[in-house]
Amino acid sequence: MTDVEAAVVDAHRRRWALVLASTARVAGDLDLAEECVQEAYAAALTSWARDGIPDNPAAWLTTTARRRAMDAVRRERVFRSKLPLLIEPEPEEPADEGDMDEPEDAVPDERLRLIFMCCHPALAQEAQLALTLRLVCGVPTVDIARAFLVPETTMAARLTRAKKKISTARIPYRVPGAAALPDRLRGVLGVIHLLFTTGYTAPSGTSLMRTDLMDQALHLARMLRELMPDEREVWGLLALLLVTDARRATRVDSRGRLLRLEDQDRSRWDRAAIGEAHDLIVGGLRGGRPGRYVLQAAIASLYAEAPAYDQTDWPQIVTLYDALLKVWPSPVVALNRTVALARVSGPARALADVEELEKDERLAGYQYLPAIKADLLRRLGRARAASAAYRQAMELATNEAERVFLAEQLSDLEEADQEAGR
Amino acid sequence: MAQYAILLYAQAPADADDLTPQEREAHQRHADELGDAMLTAFALQPSTTATSIRGDAVTDGPFVDAKEVVAGFCVIEAPDLDAALEMARRNPITQLGGGVEVRPVASGFVRG
């Protein structure tokens, strides 16, 4: 890669949202804005190779994209003035050229506006996530389609529909007022978290992770923290992502096989990230009842901070799960709690809880339920029932690395069972 | 400014005559509060009085068979969706077991 290519790629990764956000304000239309921004990045390749990389690449790209947008808006106006019979909505006033030198402090606000617009409650959660990926992260539609396991044309149609709703229904391009903020923030946090988990265990394919999505999510969480420094749930989310991501390098072995938490090499965990998360959590737990993300981060952090798996503070984790269930009564949380409960009160007690959760329809088809159940049954020496549960989990697994892991657990179990029977 | 239709939904048959004086009063107060932003508003007779036509077939009752039916509608003017939602949220029907749907208006006219 040449220096110019590297600079353009870097500007794409770090500045896409900013350039798009600022262009959208001039264009008054997201499709037009996107087109102009794409053209500006393409123009940068030739222009920078000829004239050198500018001191402020983002400013260069923004100026170029906004000029193109303004030209397009002007052309559109001339076109309309020649068709006086067409009833037209009042066109958005494009900003003056002089408006282009924006103060530095306006920068983060632009990106935040874009995120909040994408996460407007008038848009379906799936559309919120897809739009955030497309508009804020600049992820190509084909990759978003892959993440959602749908054909590219389907995803393109979905994005078009969402963008059309933004312009037709006039979803405003702004950070909502204080009263609406908690509701919206929940959506924003949810989208960033979903983005991360989608990368953390890829919904399909042979590799366990999609690290590009994890990086994007971490980047967004950091950005949100800069912009909303007083929101404890934002600290919680960032901490949760950091502490989970700290184990990235050790989740699979050299052959790409999944490693359980207890089998991972703790010396290779990112201690700096775990430390940063710890500080955020301590702040987040202070003052008032902690929210969902702070509590989830605190649980993940206890797992990460234990010197060895067997020295994990299980009773404290169960206590945190109880608090989490109060603010976020999710069956998945209740299920995860049983893993820690098995350590505190024994596998039989945990199995009773898992069997109770099996009645919850929301967990039907959730592969981790039979996987957890299998592990508990195995520890209770009920090999036959454990085998059946492993098979059930394998049927439900969609990620190949996870399925291979379950198959190995099953074959280990059956070998041990045969030897015991001999 | 953009125009939005606010469609009011209530349990079938959504009879305006069933409204208590207090509920009627709440709707009037809401209209007064919106002032000039409210362009037009109509309450409808119950869905049992509706007649539907699809193609050539004429049938008794509302067009869509559902537990909740359109009880009335109004058209408001607002700068953006958030402002429209804010007005729609304050509609008394949202607190009386019903709800509203907010739809941007594409075009239309009113005679006189």
From TrEMBL, chain A:
TM annotation in the entry: none
Source taxon at top rank: Bacteria
Limits of the RNA polymerase sigma-70 region domain: 18-77
Keywords: Sigma factor, Transcription, Transcription regulation
Ranges where the RNA polymerase sigma factor 70 region 4 type domain occurs: 114-166
Domain DUF6596, first and last residues per copy: 184-281
A family per Pfam: Sigma70_r2
Gene3D superfamilies reported for this sequence: 1.10.1740.10, Tetratricopeptide repeat domain (1.25.40.10)
Gene Ontology BP term (one): DNA-templated transcription initiation
Molecular function in Gene Ontology: DNA binding; sigma factor activity
Family membership noted in the UniProt record: Belongs to the sigma-70 factor family. ECF subfamily.
Identification of the protein by name: RNA polymerase sigma-70 factor (ECF subfamily)
UniProtKB/TrEMBL annotation, chain B:
Residue span(s) of domain YCII-related: 4-105
UniProt similarity note: Belongs to the YciI family.
Protein name from the UniProt record: YCII-related domain-containing protein
Provenance organism: Nonomuraea polychroma
